[in-house]
C-alpha cells in the first residue's frame, strides 16, 4: 500500500514542478532530479491541477534530452503535450465559431483572460494556457441575444438563476462533449472599483485583432494584467485565502514584460482603489519566481508581501493550512453579509458556484484534521 504524501513530499513535488516550469519556459540545461523520477505521476497530477502541465512537460522533454535513461519520461511528456495541443486546437475552433456567430448578430464582445491570449496571436492555439471557459465582456442589454446565439450553437446554461444586479456573468454555457464552456460577463468584478477597472474602460481601450476573414476585440495589455490580479486577488478572494494558481505565473510572465505595460502606474491604480497590498503580494510572488532581484529591490512593502508569498507557498502543499485559511475567509464573508442585505444576496448566490463543494470539503478536512 502506498503511504500518504506528507507535507515534505508535497513540497518536493512543488519544487520539482517549479524547476520544470522554468525549464519549459526559459530553457537552459538541467538534468532530471531523483524527485522527478520517483514522483513523476504526482508531479504530473500537481501540474495539471495548477494548470501548468504543458510547460512542465516541455521541461521534462528538455531535461530528458541526451539521456537514454530518461527517454521514457520524455516520451510520456510528448504524449501528454500531443493531447493538450489537440484540446487547444479545439478551444481555438470554439472561440472562432463563437466570435463569428456573435459578429453576425451584431455583437462585438471583448474577450478576456485565456481567450485574449488566443486572439492576441491571430486566433492561433495557445496550448500553454489551458482554459475552463471562454470569458468575454458584453453589455448587460446584450445578454439575452448572446444566450440565444449560444443556444443555436448547441450551448445550454448550467442553470438559469441570473441577476444583473448581483451577478458578474451569466451562468456558464456548456456544450457536451466540449470541455470548455462560455462565460458572458456583464461586469469585471463584484467589488466597487474606480473607473480604470470599469467595463467601459476595458471597452474604450480594447484592441482589434484581425484573423482570417474576421476581427476580434481584446483589452489593452494594461487592462489584461489588471484583470488578472483583479480576478485572482479580489474577485476570487485569493489574497485573503493565501491562494495562488501557478498558471498565473505564466500570464504575468507574458504580459508584464510588454512595453505597453507600466507596472508603477498599475500599482498606483490598485493603491487608489484600496487594494495596494493585493497587487503587491501578487507581483512579489511572480517576481520572486521570474525576477527575484526586482522582487527584493522594487517592493515598497517587501516584508509584508514576502510573508504573503510564504503563506501562499505553504497553502500549495499543506491542505490543513489552506483549509483553515478558507474557513477564516468564509467567516469574514458571512460576518459582512449579516450587516448588509446586498452582501447577503451575493453570498447566497455565490454558494451555488461550481467550486463551492470542493472548498467546503477542504474546510471540513481542515476541521477534522485530515
Topology:
Layout: H1 7-26, H2 34-38, H3 40-49, H4 53-64, H5 71-104, E1 110-111, H6 113-120, E2 133-137, H7 143-152, E3 156-157, E4 173-174, E5 181-185, H8 199-204, E6 207-211, E7 214-218, H9 221-235, H10 238-241, H11 247-256, H12 263-272, H13 276-290, H14 292-298, H15 302-317, H16 319-338, H17 341-350, H18 356-367
Parallel strand pairs: 2-5
Antiparallel strand pairs: 1-2, 3-4, 6-7
Helix pairs in contact: 1-3, 1-4, 3-4, 4-5, 9-11, 11-13, 12-13, 13-14, 13-15, 15-16, 16-17, 16-18
Give a description of the structure:
- There is one protein chain.
- The chain has 370 residues and is mainly alpha-helical.
- It folds into 4 domains: 7-84, no CATH class; 91-219, 2-Layer Sandwich (Beta Polymerase, domain 2); 220-317, no CATH class; 319-370, no CATH class.
- The protein has helices at 7-26, 34-38, 40-49, 53-64, 71-104, 113-120, 143-152, 199-204, 221-235, 238-241, 247-256, 263-272, 276-290, 292-298, 302-317, 319-338, 341-350, 356-367, and strands spanning 110-111, 133-137, 156-157, 173-174, 181-185, 207-211, 214-218.
- It has a 3-stranded mixed β-sheet. Strands 3-4 form a two-stranded antiparallel sheet. The protein has a two-stranded antiparallel sheet with strand order 6-7.
- The protein starts with 6 loop residues before the first helix and ends with a helix.
